[in-house]
Design a protein that fits this description.
There is one protein chain. The protein has a single domain, classed as GTP cyclohydrolase I, C-terminal domain/NADPH-dependent 7-cyano-7-deazaguanine reductase, N-terminal domain (GTP Cyclohydrolase I, domain 2), CATH 3.30.1130. It contains four helices and four strands, in the order E-H-E-H-H-H-E-E. It has a four-stranded antiparallel sheet. By secondary structure, it is of the alpha+beta class. This is 7,8-dihydroneopterin aldolase. Keywords: Folate biosynthesis, Lyase. One of its GO terms (biological process) is folic acid biosynthetic process. InterPro entries: Dihydroneopterin_aldolase, FolB_dom, GTP-CH-I_C/QueF. Catalyzes the conversion of 7,8-dihydroneopterin to 6-hydroxymethyl-7,8-dihydropterin. Can also catalyze the epimerization of carbon 2' of dihydroneopterin to dihydromonapterin.
């Protein structure tokens, strides 16, 4: 299936289960893959046949900056719901949220989760 990807949306926000995360905040990196039929856009050169990725970016950023949540899993679900609500062309979506510096000891690059959701009829 065709897809649109928006990768590496870097947003400073205050999500986390620990009090320190809610006070100090941290960066979150969001990657979104939206699956949809892009045939009309590719054949007709018409924005109506696709999802405006600039607007989608702004919506994702708005969700990430919104009211703090405990889990990045829940945050990813909020991103998915917002995009599905805004764009009926999206049939399926992958959303990955990465915490580059979570408050855990150890040597690692980052921690991330990915949710995959299909539009329910």
């Amino acid at each position: 299936m065709d897809n649109i990807k928006i990768n590496g949306i870097k947003t400073y926000a205050y999500h986390g289960a620990l009090d320190a995360e809610r006070v100090l905040g941290q960066f979150f990196i969001t990657d979104v893959t939206m699956y949809l039929d892009l045939r009309a856009a590719s054949e007709n050169d018409d924005l109506e046949g696709t999802v405006h990725y600039g607007e989608a970016y702004e919506l994702v950023e708005q969700v990430i900056k919104s009211e703090p949540v405990n889990l990045i899993e829940h945050l990813a679900e909020k991103v998915i719901r917002a995009l599905f609500d805004r764009y009926d062309k999206i049939l399926e979506m992958d959303v990955t949220i990465t915490k580059p510096s979570p408050p855990i000891d150890g040597h690692y690059e980052n921690v991330s989760i990915t949710l995959n959701r299909k539009r329910e009829n």
